Structures are given as structure tokens and as C-alpha cells.
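Hi R.,

Here's the chain you asked about this morning:
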Amino acid sequence: MKILKYKPSKTPIPELVTLVKDKYGDKKNFDFFFSDFQKAYNFCIDNPNISFLPFSSFENEQLVAHIALIIDKRLLENEAFFGFFEMEQNLSVLKAIWQSLKEEAKKMGISVLKGPVNGSIWHQYRCIKETDSSEYFKSEPMSESYYYKLLTQMKPLSEVSYYSASREKFDNVMEVIKTEFRKLITVGFQIEELKNVSYEQLLQIAEISRIAFRNSWGYTDLTEKEFLQLYSSDKLETHLNKLYLLYKDQQIIGYCGTSVENKQTLILKTICILPEYQGLGLGNALAYKIHLDAQKEGFKKVIYALIREDNKVKNFPKDDTLIFRRYAAFEFKI
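And here is the predicted structure, written out as C-alpha cells:
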């Protein structure tokens, strides 16, 4: 087995592309996944804040493992990400390439590794922990289910857990949270529903995201340019169905986006609200409006995408949801 630290080019090496396509190319929504994969790679390559150090492992001229050390100046001084992690189901192969990654990280003054993260948590991150083997939805990270088992063999210091769930009947959840929606208008809040986002609105959303997520695991602060590239007009056109903006006295204080998986299924993305307005039921008010619109538009199913296990949403019924995938990200002390 030969392990190489190589100098990255503008595009992923052909062997990595082949490995990714061999693993996931026949999966539903692969094109969405691979487009995001390439954008995350470009984010690392063209970024003055990032040192990107990829490693490849070959056996018989075949790529059997790939991993990258991603050092972002905006993380704590001793922290870095690892990402672009793909490999065969072979613990000895992982141990070898992991050792190379650790040695390089230590030389760079790194003592904590977080991942798998492809560039940043604004891009693809996490690996699958449990699955019912249902099809991937749009914007969902793809990974082999055995990655979780392999990475736990490397003895992580901690694990952060996430899940995706679905609901096929909306009446119960709407009955429970409708009070917050009705109260919203009477206390000076408004919801605006958009199909297209202006440049100014996008900048306001960026600022809300920075404030709301800055204490999140693995957070890095994007520049205005990075945020606009991440949420470019073509990506919004591809992924976004509607954007719901929450206002207080003409100021945007929160938002939530949805995307269409198919004629029957709507995906609800993260509800984001400024910290000073959290705990007032505004998230549930937004959720009510989204479910109401979904019902009117004939959707039969809502997917709640990539939710952190300990999120702060209160009084939102979960008993009638089906958790179909669980994910994990890790922190390693090296």
C-alpha cells in the first residue's frame, strides 16, 4: 500500500472522482451531491484562509482511501477539519492513512481534528450512523454506512449526532403549533414568502446566519464573497422552493427555506432565528405556515432535514415522525 500526500489541483483527482462515482453514482440525487462535493472542493482550493492537504492510498494502482487535512485560520488555533473521506471497508487501510493525517496535522500545530467535514459546515459534512436504506433526498450528504464504524475505531473524543425524519400527516403538528402562528401577527411579527431572493436580502440572511450559528459545532465565519458563492443564484434556483422571511418592525429576524423532493414530498431546511427572539414560539409559527402551504399545494410528506439531536426547538411534536437516517460528526484529540 502506498500513501501519498499530493498537491491538489483545481479539480479533484480523477481517481477520487471515479471512487465517488463508483460508490454513489447510481443513487438518487447523486448529481446534486456531486455538484455540492465539487463546490466544497473548490472552496478549499481557492481560499486564502485554508491550507488544504489531501492524502491518497493506493493498492495495485487503485485508490482505496482518500482523506484531506483542512486547516482554516478561522477555527481555533489548534483545530482543523478532516474531509473528502472515501475508502474501502478496511480498518488497516484507515489506520495507515489516518496515521499519515495525524503526523501532518501535528507538524502543523494541530491537536484537534473535526469531521468528516468537506471544507466547512456550510458545505457537506457528517457520516451516516444508521439508515433504513431509503433513497437519499436532495442536499443530503452521501456516505457508506461503515464509515461510522471505522471512524469510531479511531477512538474519537466526542460525537455530535444528527437525524433526518419525515411526517406524512400534518393535522396533529398543525393543531399543536397553530397558536404560535395566530399570536405572531398580533405582537408585531410578519412572515414574507419568496420565490426569489434579492442581493440585499441575501446579505441580511448571511448576517442572521452568522449570529445564530456562531456557537455551533465546527462553525467558521464565511466572508461575504464566500456566502454569496455558497448561495449563488444558480444554486438557489436549483435547491430552493420557497424562502420564508420572518420580520419584526421591518427587520428580518429569521428565515427558513424549503425545497421540493418530488410532487409528493417537501423538504424543510433549518429554521434560523436571531438568539434574542428564540424561545418565543416563532420557529413553530414558521413551521405552521410551511405545513399549511404544503397542505394547500398538495404535498403528502415533509422531510425535516439534518437536525441536530439536541436542537432548541420546543413544543414541536415528534412522536408521529419517522426517523429514517442518523448521522454523526466526530472530534478527535491527537
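One quick note: The longest helix spans residues 91-107.

Cheers,
M.
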